[in-house]
């Protein structure tokens, strides 16, 4: 069985090794310039929130309230979008259910300042908080 990570335990890395599950809280529209290729969503579990990137059919397939399992995902910087959790080419997102999971909106791990670890430049450590909540999606009522 695959080891599932809580969102609060995810760290930026350039490899597809993240297995987790979350609920989608809100979904942004795809920018017109990108012709529906990708969109950003706000997701959370009981420990933290995160911005996720959905590609192509994933933008249509997932809605707010969906519980999603991510296998072999990646959490890294995406140009013009900041830190995002996504399936990438090797990962897979699949719907597990709807509306039946506890979640928190803060901390949002995409709103944490990450710097290379001086002891191991391939690892990142957090050095501060940019914002307690998502700066893309408004807090839920």
Structural class: mainly beta
H/E element sequence: EEEHEEEEE
Helical region count?
1
Based on CA inertia axes, which overall geometry fits?
Answer: globular
Commentary on this structure:
The mean pLDDT is 81. The protein is mostly beta strands and 141 residues long. 4% of the residues lie in helices and 46% in strands. The strands form 2 sheets. It has a 5-stranded mixed barrel. A two-stranded antiparallel ribbon has the order 7-8. The protein is built from 1 helix and 8 strands, in the order βββαβββββ. The N and C termini lie far apart (37 Å).
In short:
This protein has one helix and eight strands; from the N terminus they run E-E-E-H-E-E-E-E-E. It has 141 residues and is mostly beta strands. The longest helix is centred in the middle third of the chain and has 5 residues, at 57-61.
Topology overview:
Blueprint (H helix, E strand, L loop, with lengths): L17 E10 L10 E7 L4 E7 L1 H5 L4 E13 L3 E5 L5 E7 L13 E6 L2 E10 L12
Parallel strand pairs: 3-5
Antiparallel strand pairs: 1-2, 1-4, 2-3, 4-5, 4-6, 7-8
List keywords for this structure.
141 residues; mainly beta; 5-stranded mixed β-barrel; two-stranded antiparallel ribbon; 8 strands
């Amino acid at each position: 069985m695959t080891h599932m990570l809580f969102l609060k335990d995810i760290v930026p890395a350039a490899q597809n090794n993240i297995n987790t599950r979350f609920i989608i809280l809100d979904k942004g529209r795809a920018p017109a310039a990108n012709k529906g290729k990708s969109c950003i969503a706000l997701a959370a579990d009981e420990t933290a929130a995160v911005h996720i990137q959905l590609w192509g059919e994933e933008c249509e397939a997932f809605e707010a309230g969906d519980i999603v399992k991510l296998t072999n995902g990646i959490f890294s910087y995406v140009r013009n979008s900041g830190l995002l959790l996504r399936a990438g080419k090797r990962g897979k997102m699949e719907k597990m259910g709807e509306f039946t999971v506890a979640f928190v909106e803060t901390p949002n791990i995409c709103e944490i300042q990450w710097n290379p670890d001086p002891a191991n430049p391939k690892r990142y450590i957090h050095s501060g908080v940019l914002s307690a909540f998502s700066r893309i999606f408004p807090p839920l009522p």
